[in-house]
């Protein structure tokens, strides 16, 4: 028969030690919430640590993109009658543009803190190849799309000095880029496009 040796009571943690461990764990959780979670998720940085670590900037970008998406969704909720009329009229005006691919080059300058957008009107299955060159600084960007109650993010970049590739429209709607200059230097962005789209809209 095997006998297990009982632990010595002196080796077990006391109530005071357990209480102290619980307090330390609680304080640590609060500290992480204030210095990491709040800046990264809600851009709230009461201690300033989030700014030093770059978490506040992450939270601001997240909130801006969420606000942009919600605004786009709000504006897209128009009555079906007007939506049908708008679709019919736009189809008459741009049907020829879809028949063949086209190309554009867009160039703009972003001062620190500035934003800019380029959106393409595309149909499901349309494909666009792009080259984005950034000079003088770096930019954050989100290549995304929305339309008919759907949304998608194709590609995101932070502190980017350029990108290239292609994407296929997942659905009918507006497909394009949102940029923000979070650097302390002015950045010039040159976007070269080649593919199938009906219209190009740009602006800050």
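^ structure tokens above, recovered residues below v
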């Amino acid at each position: 028969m095997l006998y297990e040796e009982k632990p010595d009571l002196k080796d077990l943690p006391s109530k005071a030690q357990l209480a102290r461990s619980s307090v330390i764990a609680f304080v640590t959780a609060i500290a992480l919430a204030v210095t990491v979670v709040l800046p990264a998720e809600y851009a709230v940085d009461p201690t300033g640590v989030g700014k030093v670590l770059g978490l506040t900037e992450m939270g601001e970008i997240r909130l801006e993109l969420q606000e942009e998406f919600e605004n786009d969704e709000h504006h897209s909720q128009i009555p079906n009658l007007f939506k049908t009329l708008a679709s019919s009229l736009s189809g008459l005006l741009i049907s020829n543009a879809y028949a063949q691919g086209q190309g554009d080059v867009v160039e703009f300058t972003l001062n620190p803190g500035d934003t800019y957008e380029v959106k393409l009107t595309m149909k499901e299955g349309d494909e666009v190849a792009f080259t984005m060159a950034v000079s003088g600084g770096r930019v954050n960007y989100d290549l995304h799309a929305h339309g008919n109650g759907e949304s998608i993010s194709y590609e995101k970049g932070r502190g980017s000095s350029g990108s290239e590739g292609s994407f296929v429209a997942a659905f009918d709607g507006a497909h394009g880029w949102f940029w923000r200059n979070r650097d302390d230097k002015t950045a010039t962005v040159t976007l070269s496009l080649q593919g199938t789209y009906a219209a190009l809209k740009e602006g800050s």
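The radius of gyration is 26 Å.
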